[in-house]
Amino acid sequence: MTTTSRDTRDRQAVGGRSALTPPPQPRPRQRITTRARVLVAAAVTLVFVAPIYLMLVNAFKPQDKILANPLALPWPPTLDNLTKALSRPDNLIPLGLRNSLIVAVISVALIVPLGSAFSFYISRRSGRVKAIILVALSAGLMIPPQVTLLPTIRILTWIGLDHSYPGLILANLGGGYLSFAVFVYVGFMRSVPDEIIQAARLDGASGLRIWWQIVMPLVRPATATVVIFLTLWIWNDFLNPLFILGPLQGQTITTGLYLTIGQYSVDYGQLFGIMFLAGVLPVIGYLTVQKQFVAGLTSGSAK
Question: Which residues of 95-113 are buried (b: 16+ CB within 10 A; e: fewer)?
Fold first, then answer.
């Protein structure tokens, strides 16, 4: 036997099995577990996809076909539901979209600089003070917003901002949205090297300039993640606009959907059309900044 054949046999022996031996087959219990996981994943996906499917197909069907079979595809499709929703005499869609857009943009535009600046301050601190601040902020994420809704309304009434859009925006600033932004930014700002901060301070840069011109460009993925999440949450918020604004002071698109539901009858075609129009802007916004959003999630998981 040659040296080459002996070396080959030795390598095969070290590997644990011969090259001609087939790989081990999964056990029956492993097969059952794998199939169960696939079925559970498919069921969970179906639960999340089913409402979206119902909204899409019924937005382009007349009322009688919706009542007959809401799961059927819209054939032939119609745009009457969207036309009726846009031509309502109360201008529900234009006003609701405008109000929701104004509230979401202003709230996020205020939360991002406040949250990032406070996170920069926390990330450069150490010890008990930092831990106490983070524990206090975590309460904003753990306490349900329904618990703090009534005290928030009383505070807004006391300062004269109840039933107003500035009051709604101020309520967004004081809720769990700011806590979420702080927690996301702190994880990113901890990775900023101290050498960069110290070099900027030696050059005479102030703390405000360091935060805005040096740190913020380094945490753009975090900013994109915060902006997307907060915009979607504020856009989809229902309780705060309903109770803080009230039905007579105006409505966002979510409270507008609630007002379209009649007490005795519901025009499902128009309702699904309004749902479709209400979901168009968030989807377009997400597709626009999708790359930054994915980059922010992956970078945050690595950190």
Answer: bbbebbeebbebbbebbbe
pLDDT, mean over the chain? 80
**Assigned token pair, 268:** 């499902």
Q: Are 126 and 189 in contact (CB under 8 A)?
A: no
For the structural domain made of 90-259, what CATH number should be given? Answer: 1.10.3720.10
Q: Report pTM.
A: 0.76
Q: What is the pLDDT of residues 205-228, one digit of tens each?
A: 888 888 888 888 888 888 888 888
Does residue 106 contact residue 173 with C-beta atoms inside 8 Å?
no
Peptide bond into 76 cis (omega under 30): yes
